[in-house]
Specification:
Strands 3-2-1-4-5 form a five-stranded mixed β-sheet. The protein has a five-stranded mixed β-sheet with strand order 8-7-6-11-12, sandwiched between helices. Strands 9-10 form a two-stranded antiparallel sheet. It has helices spanning about 30-40, 55-60, 70-85, 120-135, 140-145, 155-160, 190-215, 230-245, 255-260; strands at about 1-5, 10-20, 20-30, 45-50, 65-70, 90-100, 100-110, 110-120, 155, 175, 220-225, 245-250. It folds into two domains: about 1-70 and about 255-265, 2-Layer Sandwich (Nucleotidyltransferase, domain 5); about 120-250, 2-Layer Sandwich (Nucleotidyltransferase, domain 5). A hairpin with a 3-residue loop joins strand 7 (about 100-110) and strand 8. It is of the alpha/beta class and about 270 residues long. Helix 4 (about 120-135) runs antiparallel to helix 7 and helix 5 packs across helix 7 (about 190-215). It binds adenosine-5'-diphosphate (ADP) and magnesium ion. Adenosine-5'-diphosphate (ADP) binds next to helix 4.
Length: about 270
Amino acid sequence: MKIGIDAGGTLIKLVILDDENRTFKKYPSTDIDQVIEILNNDYSEEEVYLTGGKSEYIQEKLNFESKISIEFDATFRGLTQLLNESNLNFERYVYLNVGTGTSFHQATTTDQKRVGGSGVGGGTLLGLSHLLTGIEDYHTIIERAKKGDRNKVDLKVHHIYNGKPTPIPGDLTASNFGNVLNHKSDQSIEDQLIAVIGLVAETVTAMALNLADAFDTKKMVFIGSTLLDNTVMTDIIYNYSQLKGAEAYVVPNGEFSGALGAIETN
Ligand code: ADP
Ligand code: MG
């Protein structure tokens, strides 16, 4: 048995390889000490591979040997494997890891280069949602956001041009939250939540589009737990990308790229 662990800022992702079986698990990073206890009690005979910001903390507390790999290398290895399994064979692409924060990468079939990052990510989604609505549960945020309407929160290009011809598609967001003052106290919790997700989704997509353009590709891959069961976010990513003539891909189990790629298979 081999266990790959990506211990991130919000979630600890585990991939367990047992003969032909592959199991994925997730724990909140706040439960890190319980995860360490489980590993020490039940998995001390196994090969454990670590990556992510909290990997050294785990390694110090394990009472058996483990190996650490560099997060960006591990994530690229895991992502390459997941892309292959999905028959997505891209010569040149960009990928964004939308975790607690977001990191951007330009990649070929053999290499990746980290080209930047942004503090806007899944942590922003949770934090702003909580500040605005008091809700902090990820799945509740997504479910309620599905019933929201962005029109009373966000200012679209067509709102500004007000029926006149627009130089860019009228449906593009001109200003996230820019319509709030025109509809004071008129936004439901659902409207606020979908607007928060819109802000995060459009920010990372705008960055991906620029990055892809500079790297001479149309292919943009999105990974990270922020996309998990989050059709509100992925719909916005797909639509915005399409509007700009780019192709967005959300890889199944992409949030486990780091944990999967941390495992040495030979
Ligand atoms: P990191 O590697 O930084 O921990 P992830 O890729 O795991 O980041 O993404 C974390 C984000 O995923 C959170 O900020 C949140 O928006 C979202 N998320 C998805 N599922 C959950 C969950 N069960 N609990 C908390 N956040 C979740
Ligand atoms: Mg991460």
